[in-house]
Design a protein that fits this description.
Order of helices and strands: HHHHH
Shape: elongated
Structural class: mainly alpha
Distance between the termini: 85 Å
Number of helices: 5
Number of domains: 1
Largest sheet: none
């Protein structure tokens, strides 16, 4: 509720300054939730009544583009960033809570598996070398 009031008031104040073209303000109104867009667009329609239809269309287009872009940002930036932060912050938090760290445990298991694979590869190479010496 507070954001809607703030967005409407802020839009009116910025429009009164005449720093930006009304179409730019219409595009800027399309960020955030739909109710914020409606509040900002209504304020702009009162300030620029002759451009109300164009401003509403620009705000709706901007909201659609922001929503689509937001999905890709969440997928390609948000999820990898969350994973990296979890790997970075989970061990110190687990230490503070005096609990075993899931990240450190998974790293230890991966290192053991890699060591086992390395030993298996070395044994296979040694077996091939011994077989070639016998011939």
């Amino acid at each position: 509720m507070v954001g809607t009031i703030y967005f409407g008031f802020m839009t009116t104040m910025v429009a009164a300054l005449n720093l930006f073209h009304p179409y730019a303000l219409g595009m800027a109104s399309g960020v955030g939730a739909g109710i914020l867009m409606a509040s900002a667009t209504a304020s702009l329609a009162l300030v620029y009544p002759d451009m109300a239809a164009e401003l509403s269309a620009l705000a709706s287009t901007s909201e659609t583009l922001s929503g689509i872009t937001g999905i890709y940002v969440a997928i390609f930036i948000g999820i990898p960033l969350t994973k990296k932060l979890y790997q970075l912050l989970e061990p110190p938090i687990a230490r503070l809570r005096r609990e075993p760290s899931e990240v450190l445990e998974s790293r230890r298991k991966a290192a053991e598996e890699q060591e086992d694979e390395k030993e298996g590869a070395e044994a296979a190479v040694a077996a091939v070398a011994a077989e070639q010496e016998v011939r």
